[in-house]
Amino acid sequence: MNRIILKIFFALCYLIYSSLSISNENIYRIDYIIFKYLPDIASNEKFVAPEIKLSEELINITALQYPEFKKPDSLVNNFPYQELFQDISVSRIVDSSNVENENKEEKVMMSKNQLFFQNDSGVDFSMEEIIQKLKRSKNYRVIGKNSWFQEVKNEVFAPSVFVQTKIDNGNMVFGEIKVYKKRFLHMDLNLYFGEESSDSVNFEKEIELKELGKNGEFKPTKLNLFENLNLNLLYQINHSRKVRSREIHYVDHPKFGVLFEINPITSN
Q: What's the pTM value of the predicted model, to 2 decimals?
């Protein structure tokens, strides 16, 4: 009898802990921008083609709505870059954005019907100003962006989120992002950069994903990464970093880079 009572007691404690653990202080909005360096300059640096290694369990972001990025005139008509674009570095963009963030208090609200792991970029993407600065620079081309809310857990229980851009000028980036807590916030990035090529071999890579439904339960789904694509995998970013919330962070590779921001939701 005592064992039964103890089991019931511990079960109730677990349920209470679980309900309390998803509090506002554990809910964050994750925003990122993926960009490529311009122009394509030949380099003596040799890059080994990466091998795809993704987590076994990946969460898919639902209702993706990537914007259509218009190709700058200089890329269409081969105009000199300096005639149309500014020579500004991404590090300067990050620094100026972080200074601006210090002087303003952005309210990060999760709408009543908003689900975790559901696209939240829309028209009011929080990093839209940075996108516009990147598009005015001669040095970068934005490939993709996204935004979602999630509960940030400790490293053992934190999920990895699958990310993928659309094909942009023959380029695509895909991979996974993991946000978790130790003593501080951390983010792990594992991203692959591919380029369409008529010389590449068309092969399939099917991955298993989970999507969160309106009923609060995850359902399994599958995705063929390279369906109808001839893609050469060229580069990889595999990086782990301790981060501060409410700051723009920058992770780069000689060929492409990522800007991201992690913001806690505003308490009511």
A: 0.80
How far is residue 268's CA from residue 179's CA, in Å, rounded to a whole number?
Answer: 24
pLDDT, tens digit, 9 for 90 and up, residues 131-140: 999 998 889 9
Give residue-wise pLDDT tens across range 233-267: 999 999 999 999 999 999 989 999 999 999 999 87
Asked if omega into 159 is within 30° of 0 (cis), the reply is: no
Q: Which residue has the tokens 């954005």?
A: 97
Pairing of strands 160-164, 58-60: parallel
Helix, strand, coil distribution of the chain in percent, nearest 5: 20, 40, 40
Taking alpha carbons only, the member of 254, 200, 204 closest to residue 232 is 200
Inter-CA distances, 133 with 49, 69, 108, Å:
31, 13, 22
Q: In what order do the strands lie in the sheet with 58-60?
A: 218-224, 206-212, 58-60, 160-164, 171-181, 185-196, 231-243
**Residue 18 gets which letter from DSSP?**
H
Q: Which two tokens stand for residue 51?
A: 């091998």
CA distance 143 to 145: 7
Q: pLDDT exceeding 90 applies to what percent of the chain?
A: 53
Task: Determine contact, residues 62/212, Cβ cutoff 8 Å.
Answer: yes
Look at residues 265, 24, 21 and name the one whose alpha carbon lies nearest to residue 148. 265
Closest CA to 32 of 194, 232, 197, 249: 249
Give me the residue spans of the domains in the chain: 27-264
CA distances 137 to 12, 228, 260, Å, are 56, 33, 18
The count of other CB atoms within 10 Å of the CB of residue 43 is: 9
